Amino acid sequence: MSNPNSTPDQPLDLQSTVDDSRALRWAITGASKGGDTASAVYGTILAASILIASYGTALEIFISVIGTGLVFWLAHAHVSVMRRVVRGGQAVTTKDVRRSLTHEWPLFQSSLMPAAPMVLAMVGVMSTDNAANLGILICFVGLIAWGIVVARAAELSRRASILAVSGNVGLGLLLVLLKASLK
Known about the structure:
Blueprint: H1 15-19, H2 22-29, H3 37-53, H4 58-88, H5 94-109, H6 112-122, H7 128-153, H8 158-181
């Protein structure tokens, strides 16, 4: 089935599908309106990776997840602006910087929900290990949700949808295997 939102030379427009679901956009993956959905997927994988590799107190892990998301958001926005300068030789305006920051915002925003369980660990509701595992689970569910969003936006067949979701599940399972190998 062909999607009226895309052509072979134009990327698939996921934004309208994402905009239809605020719960998906905010609670699971963090794609803000006007932001790049690919950045949300990348940020989700980044947050899970930090949760897997971090050690220390709940506060230190929380700062690692949020801080890394913040740095990567700024770095991606910076590279986006620099790309315009290099490719187009354009002068950078404040509007360009703001647009780039908005476009890449989901990269940072997607670190918030996976980091949230660390707050519960900080106040003694759960252990740091359980909080990290819950954060990784949030990322895993987010990856599945993005597979569904892509399949819906692309109007894929049932078989192709299963393959799209399976690809994201595969990424999630790789993260789980990484976590298991580091114990």
